[in-house]
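TICKET: design request
STATUS: open
ATTACHED STRUCTURE:
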């Protein structure tokens, strides 16, 4: 079985270490979840907008799952967590350029109507 997802680097039907990962999760009372392609895109967008990081799709999975685990209470809202995110890979550049071009156009329209942005441009 090969999963159908935009997260190609994680699309492994039967990961070699999957059994061991599940064993450790059970032994440590850990939690896991999954995300849809739309949730991956939303997480990538969130990272780009809030942290200036263009993550690869696997990074979107990490952030998307963390959001779900926080929402479900499996990661307490008031706690700290470290999330490892890989940044964009060369093969993701085409997607990044399309994503950036779309958002740059939206930002330009928003900025044009903003007095502060106009002043910054004028200087």
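STATUS: resolved
RESOLUTION: sequence designed for all positions
ATTACHED SEQUENCE:
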């Amino acid at each position: 079985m090969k999963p159908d997802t935009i997260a190609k680097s994680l699309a492994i039907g039967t990961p070699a270490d999957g059994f061991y990962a599940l064993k450790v999760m059970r032994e440590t009372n850990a939690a896991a979840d999954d995300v849809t392609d739309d949730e991956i895109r939303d997480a990538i967008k969130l990272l780009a907008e809030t942290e200036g990081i263009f993550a690869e799709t696997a990074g979107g999975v990490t952030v998307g799952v963390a959001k779900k685990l926080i929402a479900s209470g499996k990661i307490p809202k008031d706690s700290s967590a470290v999330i490892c995110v890989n940044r964009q890979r060369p093969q993701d550049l085409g997607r990044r350029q399309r994503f950036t071009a779309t958002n740059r156009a939206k930002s330009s329209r928003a900025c044009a109507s903003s007095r502060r942005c106009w002043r910054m441009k004028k200087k």
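CLOSING REMARK: The two ends are 58 Å apart (CA to CA). Residues 61 and 92 are 15 Å apart (CA to CA).
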